[in-house]
Amino acid sequence: MAFVRPTGVTYFEPELAYDSYVLFTGADSITRLIDLGGVVHKQWPYAGVPPRIIDPALNNGRLGDIGIQLSGSGDSRGGIFANGTVGQLDWSGDTVWEWGSEAPGGAARQNHDWESLPNGNRLLLVTVPRVVPALGPAVVGDQGLFEVAPDGSIVWEWLAGDHLDELGFSAAGWEALRATVTRDPDDPWGYLELNSAKSLGPNRWHREHPGGVFHPDNILISSRKANIVALIDKATKSVVWQLGPYISETPGAQHQRINAHKVPRPVDQISGQHNPHLIADGLPGAGNILVFDNQGGAGYPPAPLGIYAGSRVLEIDPSTRQIVWQYTAEDSGLPSWTFFSSFVSNAQRLPNGNTLITEGMTGRLFQVTSSGQVVWEYGSPYEGLGVGGEPEVREPRVPGVDRLTRTPLVYRAQAVPFDWVPLGAPASRAAAVDRRGAL
Predict the structure, then answer these.
(1) pTM for the complete prediction?
(2) Residue 73 C-alpha from the chain's centroid
(3) Residue 227: left (phi > 0), alpha (psi -120 to 50), or beta?
């Protein structure tokens, strides 16, 4: 029996949607640039974790360069160990920069995130196999950050295993963490599963308080497995601000509480979250943290979650730790479980105030207004086998899955302004508008 789900553009209100290209890697390990009509304008035979068209302002004005993974490491563990080299391609597909052989162990092992920095360097989230004394004698996949110069040299680094005592684990949390590592030191996604790393950039908190913790160079990271969002001071390497791992004021799942949609309100328990980042200057909500809160099983020990599974997107004021905006399926008049991705996924604020959401587990990309109205929706038609969070990984060791299975998974999509690529605005937009009556 075949499982049939809608793919392509399934809904589009052009008057309300923010018009852009959208970049994503499909579960077939091909990266594509589409317009809001679903037309593919460019594709690359590589996966990105995530793929990203580089802002020309950070790329000497050159249009259409993309950051992507270029080769595998050959490591049979897959997951965070799988990447050999990362690189930058120009619009023609020629390699502008490639890095990995210079890394410790001869492989980049980049996973989950990377960033082009204003100084011309690249910030890479990487895996470093090593012994972490606080976790026992076994070699584990420790995750951390490398800042890599254009010549390939590592000019700054931070390793999570050196800072575990700063993350606020309880005695029970340490016990659960160590037991997990002992049981599976070769966990293909890492004992913390760091899934994002983003420098803050210029922001109002730093302008108002130059000596505070929100220096533009400081880096916001996320640990999916530990339910932690943490801010790393770039100069001292210390954790200087944090959400999680335990938010005990309001235990239980947010969808089963009175006033669960009233904002502002204090942050409640996040679980399995992805890509917390400061909304950039010039965008609605600038200075607040936007995060995809998966509400998937996670935590040391596991966070309490309710039976009505549903993900949410949260906008958080970091100065007050208040939720000031959120999106759940209920904000679109639907049951909570109709919007749910227990892993992967992303949210991106757009210039008109809409938010592009990647419901990654199902391969669904959609835009919502600030009131929760869905104004564009797309289902990825590109399927692959045995993907467990990084689309290029083909081996069958997916957490909780014993056999290869077909999936439309999308890790993270990016809304790409028309003037970032040589194409300009697509002529196909008119055709997309004409389709609305059929959607």
Answers:
(1) 0.93
(2) 22
(3) left
